[in-house]
Amino acid sequence: MTSSSSAGALVAAALLAVSTPALAHVTFETARAAPNATYKGVLRIPHGCNGQPTLKVQVRIPEGVIDARPMPKAGWTLETARAPYAKTYRQHGEPVSEGVTGITWSGSLEDGHYDEFVFQARITDAFAAGSTVHFPVVQTCANGTEEWTQIPAAEQDPHSLSHPAPGVTLVAAPGASASATAGSLAIEQPWSRATPPGAKVGGGYLRITNKGQEPDRLVGGSFPLAGRVEMHEMSLDGTVMRMKPVQGGLAIEPGRTLEFKPGGYHLMFMDLKEPLRAGQTHKGTLVFEKAGTVEVEYAVRPMGAQGAAEHKHH
Amino acid sequence: MILKRSLLLPLSVFLVAALTLLVTVLLLVPEPQQNQSRVPIGGPFRLTSHEGKPFTEADLKGKPFAVFFGFTHCPEVCPTTLYDLTQDLQALGPDADKLNVAFITVDPARDTPELLKSYLSSFDPRIVGLTGTEEEIAAVAKEYKVYFRKVPTDGDYTMDHTATIFLMDSKGDFYGTSNFQESDEVRRSKLQQLVKNG
């Protein structure tokens, strides 16, 4: 009895020894993010290096992630490294070709203590929904380092790595499509509807709120699968469905919301080159008189859809 | 008493006569009344199906049927209504085979049989698409009191059109209407009644 229970304890201790490092990786508090959106990364540092206190936490911002902004931390000095990006990205309609590529916090964190290091950054459309963005982290101590820099290969299980880089998986929430902002304009939930084969038109729906002090005007837009985008107003006049092209754009006064929705104003994707299929996302643009050209991403909903999301899903 | 007794016979004769007259009137009158109250919606037409074959009202009659006018360059009401009808036919189960459903284009210039065929491949295969010449479409629209008009856009056009779903009985007479704004429950119960009584 005595020998068997001590053997059991030994097995338990061995299991604990094996499972402990897996629990103690450097990870993000939120490992999911919306594609093409700003992400708040909270890095969790669970221990030092082999019992020594952590003196430095360094994060590398990968290509395709722009506008990185670290959160200063009391008792820690903050440094950022700036460098040109490999590609040019667009932020608020403006080209962006360089920015913060590394963040370093310097201070001291006891091995037995836990702390969090925070930054925000925009994960651009260089990363598709479903992909994982890895942020390599190096923890530096007085003697030695812990390098959380391993990036799993395509089909590799990240749990099989001893020092995986913290990752964020991009998840396109169905219906809760990406929002965009352009200056003082907030553009919410752009969506479209699947079209039957042979259909030459599709509808685009979204909400634009003017949070600024100046009026603006939506004057046009583009959609990748359409020859052109028009604005139409639909109305039910008795039993007759009437369609009226909007001339000269639509004004959005300060504090007001312009809504494109079934049964009212809608964007018309004209001369569709191929059918829109449920589950797709398509990037288009909206052109405003003052805010300029703004990228929007339409989530394609099933044919019977009447809104950006089913009510039951919210 | 004497007076009442003496009146009993003539009174009962009168009552029987009156009753007979009333029943006769009730039996006779509804016939002309029904004819007068027949809603003048629907009638003969000559069109072409999405299979490219000649198609007339005779191909719909024999079963109750639903007719909807629209066009494929229609962003919302037409695909939504066809989608709703597709869901309805599935919900009706075996009863769906006791019903015909037709989609008649008001835009024959663009909606060829081939285009209708590919467009309708997204929907229930029992829905037949109908097109024709401008004159043929104008004639069937007139039979159904359907309004349609071209609305010019930037170098192109869209259409205004009546978005009613016409419910017709097996003889081709008007039975009722529905539309895309009605709830699924209401529309389906109307279709069920049409299958039962139409």
Characteristic terms for this protein:
heterodimer; A: 314 residues; mainly beta; Immunoglobulin-like; 2 domains; 11-stranded mixed sheet; 50% strand; disordered N terminus; B: 198 residues; alpha+beta; Glutaredoxin; 7-stranded mixed sheet; two-stranded antiparallel sheet; elongated
Structure description:
The complex is a heterodimer of chains A (314) and B (198). By secondary structure, chain A is mainly beta. Chain A has one helix spanning 2-23, and strands spanning 27-28, 32-33, 37-45, 54-60, 65-70, 77-91, 94-109, 115-123, 132-134, 137-141, 145-148, 167-170, 180-182, 185-193, 202-210, 216-222, 228-237, 240-245, 250-252, 257-260, 265-270, 281-288, 292-301. The longest helix of chain A is centred in the first third of the chain and has 22 residues, at 2-23. Chain B is an alpha+beta fold. Helix content of chain B is 42%, strand content 24%. Chain B is built from 6 helices and 9 strands. Chain B has helices at residues 2-28, 30-37, 77-92, 113-120, 134-143, 184-197, and strands at 46-49, 54-56, 65-70, 100-105, 127-131, 148-153, 156-162, 164-168, 174-179. A 7-stranded mixed β-sheet of chain B has the order 2-1-5-4-3-8-9. In chain B, helix 3 packs across helix 6 (184-197). The longest helix of chain B is centred in the first third of the chain and has 27 residues, at 2-28. The model of chain B is unreliable at 29-36 (pLDDT under 50). The A-B interface holds A 193, 195-203, 228, 230, 232, 234, 236, 239-245, 262-263, 266, 268, 270, 303-304, 306 and B 72-77, 79-80, 82-84, 87, 110, 115, 118-123, 147, 151-154, 156, 158-164, 177, 179, 181. Strand 18 of chain A pairs antiparallel with strand 7 of chain B.
